């Protein structure tokens, strides 16, 4: 049976909100910003997320981002966030979550430091997932900086383990 893709983006493809496959038990990954990945054409990050999902008992995967602007380099993101883009991202994420208690993979690494507004974007997404009773995980232990590992830099042998997103937000916002 062919996979059913989920692909939500802006009309001009300058922003991607949701990319993944449909299933009952998805691994929901939150990265910094989308790059070039599209249905049937994963980039390195999406390929690794797919691998972690299949190796850890999930039947599907979904890629979300702190900020939905497409850029192959996070340094290419807007210097100041676009409030309308942020609101659309949070709305699409809330629609996807739809009150379901999901497993959410924190997967942005130190890239969250790329733009000062990114911790605020995370706080909005964390509020949506908190309301649904979702569980946050990370790949292995956090980096020395306290950030969760980016999937493209992680080995499949590292376990998914509990990640305290509320405590993390206190750290990055202080």
UniProtKB/TrEMBL annotation:
It comes from Microbacterium ureisolvens. It holds the Pfam family DUF1643. InterPro entries: DUF1643. The lineage of its organism: Bacteria, Bacillati, Actinomycetota, Actinomycetes, Micrococcales. It comes from the Bacteria. This is DUF1643 domain-containing protein.
């Amino acid at each position: 049976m062919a996979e059913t893709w989920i692909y939500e983006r802006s009309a001009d493809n300058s922003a991607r909100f949701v990319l993944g496959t449909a299933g009952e038990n998805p691994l929901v990954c939150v990265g910094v910003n989308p790059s070039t990945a599209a249905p049937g054409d994963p980039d390195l990050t999406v390929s690794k997320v797919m691998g972690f999902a299949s190796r850890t008992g999930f039947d599907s995967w979904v890629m979300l981002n702190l900020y939905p602007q497409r850029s192959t380099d996070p340094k290419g993101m807007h210097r100041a966030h676009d409030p309308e883009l942020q609101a659309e991202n949070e709305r699409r994420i809330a629609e996807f979550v739809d009150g379901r208690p999901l497993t959410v993979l924190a997967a942005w690494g130190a890239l969250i430091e790329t733009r000062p507004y990114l911790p605020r974007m995370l706080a909005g997404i964390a509020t949506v997932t908190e309301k649904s009773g979702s569980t946050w995980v990370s790949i292995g232990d956090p980096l020395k900086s306290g950030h969760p590992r980016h999937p493209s830099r992680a080995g499949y042998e590292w376990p998914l383990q509990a990640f305290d997103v509320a405590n993390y937000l206190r750290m990055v916002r202080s």
